[in-house]
Specification:
- With 325 residues, the chain is α/β, with parallel strands linked by helices.
- It folds into two domains: 4-188, Rossmann fold (3-Layer(aba) Sandwich); 221-321, Helicase, Ruva Protein, domain 3 (Orthogonal Bundle).
- 47% of the residues lie in helices and 15% in strands.
- It is built from 14 helices and eleven strands.
- The chain has helices spanning 4-15, 22-34, 48-57, 75-78, 112-124, 159-162, 176-195, 209-219, 226-240, 247-252, 259-275, 283-294, 302-306, 311-321, and strands spanning 38-41, 63-67, 79-84, 89-94, 101-105, 126-129, 132-135, 141-146, 167-170, 253-255, 299-300.
Length: 325
């Protein structure tokens, strides 16, 4: 049997490289175990890339970074058929999507066709080229990033495509204490690299795929009481009929979350409970994962945007208004 302590140790190993971004690290591990994809939003330089790179170091899995640009083509991601004159045949050349961990960097810089190609691969876990279907690797985790500051030359993801992401993670600036630690850590790493040709690599056994699949099975099979199931559904329903809870929130929300949100909340709440060492799900597990699952799935009205309300604030208020079992 897989032990949750293995993933607690995995988190502590990643935190040696990533300081002050605990929520992002938790989301990556949860996405890995819940078999979902992440949309990460934050300013440049907040260790988004380094976080998934650090995760890949401790897994028996391969990692690929894809830099999204306006001139990118769908075939640059999925791969393409190449003609071999020696044999007179077309050979499929796999694209970078054929890896376990994918960093889709600045996804909103690529045009709609490229975004659609990636999101189709995320949903179907396969790629179709020239009438042939190719299965993607398993596990398959995509962490897409977008910069909330720059809007020039970007193609915002439509709501229907945002819904494909299991979680939406907001990455903020580190605290002054963490930033001081970051400065000292980087300085020490640079000092070591100047002394040696190559800094010594950490010697830790990598977590194999069998352990991940076993952990998934255990986490998704733990007990959930009927009242907690109803609580999840009630939270989702509150995003669709907010007038039942607050007139102010009813004016703030233009549309609610889809059934995908219900399924994502169920899976993530189970994973959160399993990682905490419990064999049952509590309302606290649901409340912890709900904001990341809902804030990219609700639409804000013009009135809410004019008042400066964020999706996170609206979701937080809704969760507080729904009665806890």
């Amino acid at each position: 049997m897989s032990d949750p302590k293995v993933f607690t140790k995995l988190k502590s190993l990643i935190q040696k490289h990533i300081l002050g971004q605990e929520e992002l690290i938790d989301a990556l591990i949860m996405g890995l175990l819940a078999d979902g994809h992440l949309l990460v939003e934050g300013a440049p330089g907040l260790a988004k890339t380094k976080a998934i790179q650090s995760l890949s170091k401790y897994l028996d899995a391969d990692f690929q970074r894809i830099q999204f640009t306006p001139d990118l083509l769908p075939s640059d991601i999925t791969g393409t058929e190449i003609y071999r004159p020696q044999t007179g045949e077309f050979i499929f050349q796999k694209g970078p999507i054929f890896h376990n961990l994918i960093l889709a960097d600045e996804i909103n810089r690529a045009p709609a066709k490229v975004q659609a190609a990636l999101l189709e691969a995320m949903a179907e876990k396969q790629v179709s080229v020239g009438g042939t279907t190719y299965k993607l690797h398993n596990p398959f985790l995509v962490m897409a990033t977008q910069n909330p500051i720059e809007q020039e030359g970007t193609y915002p993801l439509p709501e229907a495509q945002l819904d494909r992401f299991m979680m939406h993670v907001l990455v903020d600036y580190p605290s002054a204490t963490h930033e001081l630690q970051i400065m000292r850590t980087v300085r020490q790493e640079q000092k070591q690299s100047n002394v040696m040709d190559k800094a010594p690599e950490e010697n830790h056994p990598k977590l194999n795929m069998a352990a991940i699949f076993q952990a998934r099975q255990q986490a998704l099979s733990i007990s959930m009481h009927e009242s907690v199931e109803e609580y999840i559904v009630e939270i989702i329903q509150s995003t669709r009929t907010p007038e039942r809870y607050s007139d102010k929130l009813a004016k703030a929300i233009s549309f609610g979350a889809s059934p995908r949100a219900t399924l994502a909340m169920d899976r993530c709440a189970r994973v959160n409970a399993w990682l905490a060492g419990r064999d049952y799900v509590t309302p606290d597990d649901v409340q912890k994962v709900a904001p990341q699952i809902l804030r990219h799935r609700i639409g804000l009205s013009f009135q809410a945007e004019a008042q400066g309300l964020s999706a996170h604030q609206v979701v937080t208020q809704l969760i507080m208004l729904v009665s806890t079992p």
